[in-house]
UniProtKB/TrEMBL annotation:
Gene Ontology molecular function terms on file: cyclic-guanylate-specific phosphodiesterase activity
Species name: Sinimarinibacterium flocculans
Domain EAL as annotated: residue spans: 24-284
Residues of the whole record sequence present: 120 to 406 of 406
Protein's recorded name: EAL domain-containing protein (Putative c-di-GMP-specific phosphodiesterase class I)
Length: 287
């Protein structure tokens, strides 16, 4: 077959790969523009102590608020940020934003128990950020400038991201620890060699992927896995969060199994910072 240059020009109207590549390029340009215009915003989903339901922290989750007011979920654009170098700049921005918001939210936080730590915020890290030499300095200056204790800022790394980039992940974890920040394994249980790296990597905690929880209400097997992971976390003295709690039954199961913390639509979805602040104020009034 002979190559026809005019096919390239027609590509946007076709459904071929050319079309996809152009769509992606447009999305990348739109995202760069969105970042400049401040259209990427962080929402905050409460992380609660199971049993009391007391909010002890938040996970920062990005949304793209388009000029028409619609919200685009991260699943639709994080991959594009990752494939371009935009994720580096975005990631540093997210850390700074989360630290600033955490400082604000902290003013309305009152510990419930004597062993409660200061309010914390978890920020998701993409593996592509492991190689960013400016990442750690950004974490350090965000913590310092916002007057936080380093332990208030936690970084979430997915299990697969950890395992596929072990050396870089290990270096990052060690540097985070030097700063006093914690590193938590996200989507725990969805990768491989879980037990091996829990033993060998100095991570501070894990977030049990919500697929197990969905299984736990359907099968004995799922239930046993949640229980085993709960015990493991307790035995390893790790902070453990059950993700994706949608029903009171699931919250009760996790609590009974010894997991201390939970997150999910049953408690609250991710909300803008002003709503997160309102949730903390309601909680303080009820104390
Ligand atoms: P993740 O870090 O595992 O975040 C949890 C996801 O589960 C969030 O989706 C959250 O809204 C959703 N979720 C929470 N509770 C429930 C529940 O009870 N039921 C169900 N069905 N879902 C629940 P979201 O906000 O769409 O984020 C999706 C993923 O995008 C995140 O998964 C994370 O991997 C990535 N992401 C989000 N924000 C950032 C960010 O700032 N940076 C990076 N690198 N990745 C991010
Ligand atoms: Mg996460
Ligand atoms: Mg997760
Ligand atoms: Mg997940």
């Amino acid at each position: 077959e002979t190559f026809q240059p005019d096919q390239i020009v027609r590509a946007p109207e076709t459904d071929g790969d050319g079309n996809l590549a152009i769509k992606r390029l447009r999305l990348e340009q739109a995202l760069a523009e969105a970042m400049r215009k401040g259209e990427l915003v962080l929402f905050y989903q409460p992380i609660v102590r199971l049993g009391s339901g007391h909010i002890v922290g938040f996970e920062a989750l990005v949304r793209w608020r388009r000029s028409d007011g619609s919200l685009v979920p991260p699943g639709e654009f994080i991959g594009v940020l990752e494939d371009s170098n935009l994720i580096m700049e975005f990631g540093r921005w997210a850390i700074r934003r989360a630290a600033t918001d955490l400082h604000l939210l902290g003013a309305d936080y009152h510990p419930h128990r004597v062993d409660d730590e200061p309010l914390f915020c978890s920020v998701n890290l993409s593996v592509r950020q492991f190689g960013d030499p400016d990442l750690l300095p950004a974490v350090r200056s965000a913590v310092d400038d916002c007057g936080l204790q380093p332990g208030q800022l936690r970084l979430e790394i997915t299990e697969s991201g950890l395992l596929n980039n072990l050396q870089a992940a290990l270096e990052l974890i060690e540097q985070c620890h030097q700063l006093g920040c914690r590193v938590v394994v996200d989507d725990f249980g969805t990768g491989y060699s879980s037990l091996w790296y829990l033993h060998s990597l100095p991570v501070n905690g894990l977030k049990l992927d919500r697929s197990f929880l969905q299984d736990s209400t359907r099968s004995q097997r799922g239930l046993r896995i949640v229980r085993a992971v709960g015990r493991l976390a307790v035995d390893l003295d790790m902070y453990a969060v059950a993700e994706g709690i949608e029903t009171p039954e699931q919250a009760a199961i996790c609590h009974d199994l010894g997991l201390d913390f939970g997150q999910g639509f049953f408690f609250s979805k991710a909300v803008p910072v002003a709503e997160a602040q309102a949730l903390l104020r309601q909680q303080a009034e009820a104390l």
